[in-house]
Design a protein that fits this description.
The complex is a heterodimer.
Chain A (H helix, E strand, L loop, with lengths): L16 H23 L12 H4 L2 H11 L6 H14 L2 H5 L2 H11 L19 H15 L10 H31 L3 H11 L14 H13 L7 H6 L1 H10 L4 E5 L8 H5 L22 H5 L5 E5 L14 H20 L29 H5 L5 E3 L12 E3 L12 H5 L10 H4 L6 E4 L5 H5 L5 H5 L7 E9 L5 E9 L9 H5 L8 E4 L5 H7 L1
Antiparallel strand pairs in A: 1-2, 3-4, 5-8, 6-7
Helix pairs in contact in A: 1-6, 3-4, 3-7, 4-12, 7-12, 7-15, 8-9, 8-10
Chain B lengths: L7 H26 L22 H5 L35 H4 L14 E5 L3 H11 L12 E6 L15 H13 L4 E4 L7 H7 L2 H7 L3 E2 L7 E5 L8 E5 H5 L2 E5 L1 E5 L3 E3 L1 H4 L14 H11 L4 E10 L12 E10 L2 H8 L11 H8 L12 E5 L2
Parallel strand pairs in B: 1-12, 2-3, 2-7, 3-4, 7-10, 8-10
Antiparallel strand pairs in B: 1-11, 5-6, 8-9, 10-11
Helix pairs in contact in B: 4-5, 5-7, 10-12
Classes of the chains: A mainly alpha, B alpha/beta.
Chain lengths: 528, 377
């Protein structure tokens, strides 16, 4: 591969049209992805579904359908991409995937010290990794565990945007604007700029998210892997790429090398996926992302794109032995079993409050896309820790001390791509019980200190307030008789929105807390 | 992506870019460190002391400053020097001691001090009330920026009497415009989602139709403001648009309140501050302290419908009583004092009114005032 030395300039009339088409598609898709992430706020735009990229993701549709034992309603959106894989190969990876585009951009900007031709080598031992991850993901899904959907590139990207990029941007910009405004530096201009930014680009509220640093680091890690090889993630890890690669072996779209090829090696050097076998110059369709850089770079224009008939299974470098396959499957099943034996999965946390409309088999449908977390206007929905066990890790959980389930909002159900949170009308959502509030009488101000406080009652949004105040005659520590209004929860009216817990003025823990509904018989069975 | 190039010049650029990138990450990560959720409550207690130079009472009282004399054409003491019960001893100046003095209540020669107008058309009685006080032009100057401050604490329709009647608000905006106001802003920092409240209360639509402008509260524009004469609250964060307004028109709705008994004119000003948690100790005193710096030029109390129980949030139509009344005055204490009668109470029953009078904000003794009662169709 002495590619660099043998560039023959006069012969090089690269066909750049396809390449520019591809680059335009990549940038447009990335911009659309960011746009949809930014506008995923209440009120939701009506023109485009903000979860578009999740809907068109066949891996998520397949995994959620397997795990939920039912075809997810948005599966139909994923059909075009699935079909594209069978016809065009991994074109999604090369043309549309926001993460893939970001990796290309990072390389183009020379953020990382890579791009040397000699580093474009294949890592044959790593090749099976993505297939193994895909297998484990789908196997887990078959057993109702969707944890590995967190490795889907779109979920990985949006989680970082939701929990780190945008909150970080919000904090940075707000701090800068507040500093300027308070210092009296062009306050009118600052106020005007703030009006432009909010709520169009950054939300009015500054919301903090759990695991923000972790998701940010995971994202940076994926970028950093490019230092080892270009598109390292796409080559060796991405389970979505692996799935599309399986379909790609059927694709009639192939690269053909004409006899005019003088084996200069430009194509090998230009291939970011190292998809081309050095000897045969055969591009493995399971790896090729149809970027057509090789077509553009070939000095002799020897490479052409063609639909080849008859269709058949293309040769691929990855073919696991039966033994390996069985061992992998066995390990996967063992993994599921181990997840289920972890103490965290026995008896869900009493504060594990799910979003309104969450299905009974919520964890078997949630792909951790974080779209509901993104859209939740109060920050109430947060990626869970181990409240629901390992298999529910990073699924959304209502965290009232950070924010309440807004009585006027039903956005989470409307953006859930898999229907794990069912879309509810506002009227239905307002009657959906997600938990029940209980007062800690040993800490509540009127109960424990005999001092007035009505915040929880004041905030309670249901038509017949679920918190009532009882005027009680008491004798204080000095022996003086006085009347205090003590809050009490009328449980049958409480929907568990948690605003009482959000606003309770006590420091640290609230004196009123929302508890998760009693476990269903099935859950009780599972934990006994 | 011309990777096959000599590396000599390239390397340095790459190093520079990597350096910038590393520095960027170094800057971003500490910021992101703040993104980690903590189990601590979201409430932050109000800082007791300002770290900033106070824009303060002098800003709030700017309507009395010589720079804007037209803002209060009728406030010249020569017009009614001896008969003004709430007249402050000295005319405010730019000195510190004057800042600490409550701004005098605007008196209009020949007009009533306190008017109560009854009638079935909210727009009509609002207009009649302001006219009886001497007309809007007596209170605001041409070209000025006015903030109209209704109660928009929740998103319920006007029928629930939890928020100010939109027609009352819209009429005041129109009157400000007619009197030559350059800009009329409407704001309230209530609980819950501001967007939802503005919309659901019907106030946003009415305000926009009347030519006013809804202020979307921004986290940038809070200003720590000292309250020099405050007995309990010495400083709090107040929204900048309130501090820089030439005049504030306070448009509360009369409601029962489970903590302050009633929420009327002074209590309505709570919607101009950032951290209300700090106010819940002695809320009456706190609210009257706040009124020292957030001084409404005019208070128009909406009693078209009042909420008699389960306030301030309401939610029950059976708690709503239709009175078809507005009460207006330049003296917020007098308005509040009169409004207690709607609930079968006396002015002295309300800590807010007692504290407000002690703070020199106005008078609760209605016998000292020229009270006009008007009946409209």
């Amino acid at each position: 591969m002495s590619a660099g030395a043998t560039r023959i300039w006069p012969l090089r009339r690269p066909r750049l049209g396809l390449r520019w088409a591809r680059r335009s598609a990549q940038v447009s898709a990335l911009l659309l992805f960011f746009y949809l992430a930014v506008v995923a706020v209440v009120p939701l735009p009506s023109a485009l579904p903000v979860d578009l990229f999740f809907r068109i993701d066949p891996l998520l549709a397949l995994a959620a359908s397997l795990a939920g034992r039912a075809v997810v309603p948005t599966l139909v959106w994923a059909v075009p991409v699935a079909v594209s894989a069978v016809v065009l190969g991994r074109a999604f990876c090369g043309w549309l995937c926001p993460l893939g585009t970001t990796l290309d951009l990072a390389r183009w900007l020379h953020i990382l010290p890579n791009s040397q031709p000699e580093r474009r080598q294949n890592h044959p031992r790593l090749r099976p990794l993505r297939q193994v991850l895909l297998g484990l993901l789908l196997l887990g899904a078959l057993f109702g565990v969707l944890l590995l959907a967190a490795l889907d590139p779109i979920t990985l990207y949006l989680r970082a945007i939701t929990t780190a990029f945008l909150p970080g941007l919000n904090r940075g910009l707000t701090a800068a604007l507040v500093t300027l405004f308070q210092a009296g530096v062009a306050p009118d201009a600052v106020a005007r700029l703030d009006e432009l930014l909010r709520p169009a680009i950054i939300p009015t509220q500054q919301i903090s998210y759990r695991f923000g640093i972790l998701f940010f680091s995971l994202f940076l890690g994926v970028i950093a892997l490019d230092a080892i090889a270009p598109r390292f993630w796409c080559r060796y890890i991405c389970p979505l790429g692996a799935l599309l690669g399986l379909g790609a072996r059927l694709a009639p779209l192939r690269l053909r090398v004409a006899p005019t090829c003088d084996r200069c090696g430009h194509c090998l050097a230009s291939c970011k996926m190292a998809a081309i076998a050095p000897k045969s110059l055969h591009a493995d369709p399971a790896d090729c992302v149809e970027c057509f850089d090789c077509v553009a770079e070939c000095p002799r224009q020897a490479i052409s794109v063609a639909f080849v008939a008859p269709m058949g299974l293309a040769e691929s470098r990855y073919s696991p032995s039966r033994r390996r396959f069985l061992v992998g499957a066995g390990l996967g099943i063992a993994g599921v079993a181990v997840l289920r034996t972890d103490a965290t999965s026995v008896g869900a946390d009493e504060y594990l409050i799910r979003p309104p409309g969450a299905r009974a088999d919520f964890v078997q449908r949630c792909v951790r896309c974080s779209e509901c977390v993104k859209v939740c206007p109060t920050g109430a929905l947060q990626p869970s820790g181990l409240e629901g066990g390992w298999e529910a890790l990073w699924s959304p959980v209502l965290t009232p001390r950070i924010g309440q389930c807004d009585y006027a909002c039903n956005a989470c159900g409307r953006v859930c791509p898999t229907g794990a949170i069912q879309p509810l009308s506002l009227a239905d959502k307002r009657q959906t019980v997600i938990g029940t509030a209980y007062i800690d009488e040993s800490r509540c101000i009127p109960w424990a200190d005999q001092k007035p406080c009505i915040v929880c009652e004041e905030m309670c949004p249901v038509p017949r307030k679920a918190i009532v105040l009882d005027a009680i005659q008491v004798t204080d520590k000095q022996g003086v008789s006085l009347t205090v209004k003590r809050p009490r929860v009328e449980r049958e009216r409480c929907i568990g929105c948690g605003i009482c817990e959000t606003r309770c003025p006590l420091p640290r823990q609230s004196a009123i807390r929302v508890y998760a509904p009693a476990a269903s018989p099935r859950e009780r069975d599972a934990s006994s | 992506m011309g990777e096959i190039k000599p590396t000599g010049g390239k390397l340095s650029r790459r190093v520079v870019v990597a350096g910038i990138g590393a520095a960027g990450v170094g800057l971003v990560v500490p910021l992101l460190a703040g993104c980690q959720a903590t189990p601590t409550p979201s409430q932050v207690p109000a800082a007791p002391e300002s770290k900033l130079a106070p824009p303060t009472a002098s800003t709030a009282a700017s309507t009395s400053e010589p720079a804007k004399p037209a803002a209060q054409p009728a406030s010249a003491p020569s017009e009614l020097p001896a008969t003004t019960p709430t007249q402050a001893p000295t005319q405010p100046t730019a000195t510190t001691s004057a800042q600490a003095t409550p701004r005098p209540v605007v008196k209009v020669a020949g007009a009533a001090d306190l008017v109560i107008v009854r009638g079935t058309n909210p727009a009509d009685i609002t207009r009649a009330a302001v006219e009886a006080l001497g007309g809007m032009a007596a209170f605001i100057a041409k070209g000025s920026t006015i903030v109209v401050k209704p109660n928009i604490c929740t998103d319920m329709a006007p029928e629930y009497a939890a928020t100010t009647n939109p027609e009352v608000v819209a009429t005041l905006i129109k009157m400000c415009k007619e009197a030559g106001a350059a800009k009329v802003k409407v704001l309230d920092y209530g609980w819950g989602s501001q967007q939802t409240n503005y919309k659901g209360s019907g106030i946003e639509d009415a305000v926009v139709a009347a030519g006013g402008e809804m202020v979307k509260i921004s986290p940038v524009k809070w200003k720590m403001t000292k309250i020099p004469n405050g007995k309990l609250v010495k400083a709090t964060e107040i929204y900048d648009d309130i501090l820089t307004a030439d005049a504030i028109i306070n448009v509360p709705i009369a409601k029962q309140h489970n903590l302050t008994q009633l929420t009327l004119g002074m209590k309505n000003l709570m919607g101009t501050i950032h951290y209300r948690e700090g106010f819940h100790g002695d809320i009456g005193q706190s609210v009257s302290d706040l009124s020292l710096v957030v001084r409404p030029t005019l208070t128009v109390l909406d009693a078209v419908r009042i909420l008699t129980r389960n306030g301030p949030g309401g939610g029950y139509l059976e708690d709503v009583k239709r009175l078809d009344t507005v009460v207006a005055s330049a003296d917020v204490v007098a308005v509040d004092a009169y409004a207690t009668s709607f609930f079968g109470m006396k002015p002295e029953d309300l800590q807010t009114i007692r504290a407000g009078q002690a703070n020199g904000l106005g008078t609760a003794d209605l016998s000292k005032l020229k009270v006009a009662e008007v009946k409209r169709g």
